[in-house]
Write a structure and sequence with these properties.
heterodimer, A: 269 residues, mainly alpha, 9 helices, B: 327 residues, two-stranded antiparallel ribbon, 13 helices, cell membrane (chain A), MetI-like (chain A), transmembrane (chain A)
Chain lengths: 269, 327
């Protein structure tokens, strides 16, 4: 049962990934172009199965191209926060003392600021482009990883194999990267899928507010534009939103599956 | 735990929070200096008839033309006098602006957090008591679905269902405008406006608390003291509430405190959907208007709220589990 759910989630994720990769071939041309009669309901015209918006843009093409944006932002932002989080967390946990104090303070600083407000401020500093959005989300979400890695490194530091490595005269960097990091990774891997999921949610909220990249389609911006016609054409909001929910759900389910696989303590629950 | 000790702890935590708060102010101050353009630019662009002289006048009036360090120093010295400065855009003291919006946002946040805690703990307890059965499975999937739903989309769909199709609840605002209502009616009216925003904001947190309650109740229920309580012949409900839930609430309250800041950030989006006149909306508007004094004030206040929330969580922990020492 549990396995079936996890396999279903991976399949759904692969489907979204395939859609994202195939979008330029399936729907050539700019998804922001007017191609259809405006405000077609889904199923009204077989050429546009999910209908069209008030500007006559194909909703299905928008969702397919939006998948590229969401996945790309989610994955790259997650990698960025992983990098920052691992470097900060590992350094703090390994060295301890003064270094630890300072790094923990900095982490706390970033955690006391409301994440989404911080992202908005960073996007306002740069221009609303994909790169800036990725940077903003990455900068805002590393503290979770840093805390996790720090906790792992603090326990690992006292282990005998680390002592053995130290007595062999290995350098700090080698001990941290080769000996400790692989042992600290399992909980980090589990958190990564949740990290991608939350990055996708932040990006969608950002573009919903109109702070996304104006030159690309994203699920959030489709919802934001459809909002004007919520009373009459609510499918314009419902469909891209459903795409977000399904993708994020699949990521969270994969995270649960990974957790079950990598955390034997929690098995048989 | 006695009150005296709690008071001492509160004072010490507040004292320890001072460097964090100053850090937040300095970091945000420097960040905001990097944003291209300032309030004078936006005001000039909006009036459409600005001259170089009038812009220079706005800048010098609000100190926007001073060197960076001097501006920071002025801001910090203002802070020491409990003033957050003046907003160039609204031409009002920032404390006044924030003060007019803060009650709305606090109301929304507390309603959302309260709903989320109640519903989440209830759902989680049901799931834990039926672990492995189909009702547990269905609720788990439901919780994960809520966990994956963006709050603004949940809000929009709720508007479609409850306001457009069923016509039960208003679509936005915090109160009906232009109608004279009696005292009781106006309270009901405000509550009716509160329902949808609070619900859409709480969805994500209901899911978090439900999952966490389930996991920690399962963890606690396998411990020796629970077995002892059962063996003593205590009523299962008493064991469930007094022994299991009480201990399981500790991680739940920790996470509730941790998510306080996220809740504030989420207010930006939900307040936009429901045109709720709150702090989140003010923050977004001040980013757009390059009104940094207001934004700095909001960021500072929200950090303070987060610190305060974590402090309350610490006190709550000491009450839930007397073994936890406040130090």
């Amino acid at each position: 049962m549990r396995n079936a759910v996890a396999v279903g989630a991976v399949a759904l994720l692969l489907l979204v990934l395939a859609m994202a990769l195939a979008a330029p071939w399936l729907f050539p041309g700019d998804p922001l172009d007017m191609v259809a009669t405006p405000l077609l309901w889904p199923g009204q015209d077989p050429a546009f199965p999910l209908g069209s918006d008030s500007m006559g843009r194909d909703v299905l093409a928008g969702i397919a191209h939006g998948a590229r944006m969401s996945l790309a932002v989610g994955v790259v932002a997650a990698v960025l926060s992983l990098l920052i989080g691992i470097v900060v967390g590992a350094t703090a946990g390994y060295f301890g003392g003064r270094v630890d104090d300072v790094l923990v303070r900095i982490t706390e600083l970033f955690q006391t600021m409301p994440t989404f407000l911080f992202v908005i401020v960073v996007v306002a500093i740069g221009q609303p482009s994909v790169a800036v959005i990725v940077l903003a989300i990455g900068l805002a979400s590393w503290p979770v990883i840093a805390r996790l890695v720090r906790a792992e490194f603090r326990t690992l530091r006292e282990m005998e194999f680390v002592l053995a490595a130290r007595s062999q005269g290995f350098g700090h960097l080698r001990i941290m990267l080769q000996e400790m990091l692989p042992n600290a990774l399992p909980p980090v891997i589990v958190t990564t899928s949740v990290l991608v999921a939350s990055a996708i949610l932040i990006e969608s909220a950002l573009s919903f507010l109109g702070m996304g990249d104006p030159n690309t389609v994203s699920w959030g911006s489709m919802i934001g534009e459809g909002r004007e016609l919520l009373r009459t054409s609510w499918y314009l909001c419902a469909l891209p939103g459903a795409a977000i929910v399904l993708t994020v759900l699949a990521l969270n389910l994969v995270g649960e599956g990974l957790n079950d696989a990598l955390n034997p303590r929690l098995r048989n629950r | 735990m006695n009150l005296l000790k709690a008071g001492r702890v509160l004072r010490r935590t507040l004292w320890q929070a001072v460097p964090t708060v100053i850090g937040v102010v300095i970091l945000n101050f420097c960040l905001l200096q990097l944003v291209p353009g300032d309030a004078a630019d936006v005001i000039a662009a909006e009036s459409g008839s600005a001259t170089a002289e009038s812009m220079a006048q706005i800048r010098s009036h609000f100190g926007l033309d001073l060197p960076l360090l001097q501006q920071l120093g002025a801001y910090l010295s203002n802070l020491a006098h409990f003033s957050l400065g003046n907003s160039p855009r609204y031409n009002l003291p920032v404390t006044e602006l924030i003060g007019s919006r803060l009650p709305n946002t606090l109301l929304l946040m507390l309603a959302a957090l309260g709903t989320a805690l109640l519903a989440g703990v209830l759902l989680g307890s049901i799931m834990a008591s039926r672990v492995g059965r189909w009702s547990d499975r269905v609720l788990s999937v439901l919780a994960l679905l809520l966990y994956s739903t963006p709050s603004f989309w949940l809000g929009l769909m709720a508007v479609v269902l409850f306001s457009v199709h069923l016509g039960w609840l208003p679509t936005g605002g915090s109160a009906s405008i232009g109608v004279q209502l009696g005292e009781w009616d106006s309270v009901v009216d405000r509550l009716r406006h509160l329902v949808l925003p609070a619900l859409s904001m709480s969805g994500f947190y209901i899911a978090i608390f439900a999952r966490l309650t389930r996991a920690s109740m399962l963890e606690v229920s396998r411990q020796d003291f629970v077995r002892t309580a059962v063996a003593k012949g205590l009523h299962p409900l008493r064991v469930g509430l007094h022994h299991v839930l009480r201990n399981a609430l500790i991680p739940v309250t920790t996470v509730a405190g941790m998510h306080f800041g996220t809740l504030l950030g989420g207010a930006v989006v939900v307040e936009t959907v429901f045109s709720w006149p709150g702090l989140g909306r003010l923050a977004f508007e001040s980013v757009m208007a390059r009104d940094y004094t207001v934004l700095l004030g909001i960021l500072l206040l929200s950090s303070l709220l987060v610190i305060l929330a974590n402090m309350l969580v610490d006190l709550l922990h000491a009450w839930l589990d007397p073994r936890i020492q406040l130090h």
